[in-house]
Amino acid sequence: MAAPYRVALVAFPGIRAFDVSVITEVWGTDRTDRGAPAFDLRRVTADGTTAVPMRGGLALHPDRTLDWLDGADLVLVPGLDDHLTPAPAPVLDALRRAHASGTTVAALCGGAFTLAQAGLLDGRRAITHWRLTDLLRTRHRRVTVVPDALFIEDDNIWTAAGTAAGIDLCLHLVRLAHGAEAAATIARSMVTAPFRTGTQAQFIEHPTPRAARDADALAAVREHALRHLHEPLTIADLAARAGMSPRSFARHFTAATGTTPLRWLLDQRIAAAQKLLERTDLPMPEVARRSGFGSEVTMRQHFASRLATSPRAYRAAFTGGSNPIAR
């Protein structure tokens, strides 16, 4: 039996209770009876004993010291209630050591400011909540702030946009380490989407509210597409189903999801292929057909461009328990 995946939640006064809850819900709940991997989540502080107060009268009770980061597979930094809260020096030192040793380090929302304090984002790309991008750029000028991603990675350091994007990042990290089905199992338990496409640009401004009819039509079209991925769907077909012209459909779809209809459809096909590769021994041409790629060649091309691996390598790696995704 494989050893549990070791996850360290780094805590200090000022961290956000919501982000702590997200991390705990994803990695701190035992779902092995539903086929999810076994996780070993530890709440890590400088002394390993003193409770960390959080907003709303909550408190986090640690169970490990910062030394535990040395053996962790993943280190997570929650966001902050006050985004300029200075992290304790031992925390910053521990984060630097973890990254230097090759451990994946990830920050949710304003946790990017903590990583920036540690110097881990110097010369690297990072994201935070869209209301905080200017502040991050001003306070940490050596950081390349990306304004409109949900989450991004640079040199095995992950950062995420605000609030719900932390859920997106956590599920994505599960997907990278354990596969799409493991992430989907956890997402179903949380009653959330296994992944969202697009960027946080869709949330920044809402200059013209869309009619409820258009929103309902788009939701119905997406549901139809997911049920018929194996068919040769075209954007014109989907637009007609929504009762819109292709141009109007593309505009409304992008405004609602933050991504184009074509890219969204490709994301769904890749996710479907990943699940088939993980859960079945179907031959590659059949996997390609069921996920809507039409041919193994087309599926292989999209896996190479989006996942930096091949379908065969993806299946072999998850069968053997290693991570097929190029970091």
UniProtKB/TrEMBL annotation:
PROSITE patterns to which the protein is assigned, alphabetical: HTH_ARAC_FAMILY_2
Alphabetized SMART domains for the sequence: HTH_ARAC (SM00342)
Record's protein name: Helix-turn-helix domain-containing protein
Superkingdom field: Bacteria
Domain HTH araC/xylS-type span(s) in chain numbering: 219-317
Keyword hit for Transcription regulation: yes
Pfam family, one: DJ-1_PfpI
Keywords, sorted A to Z: Transcription, Transcription regulation
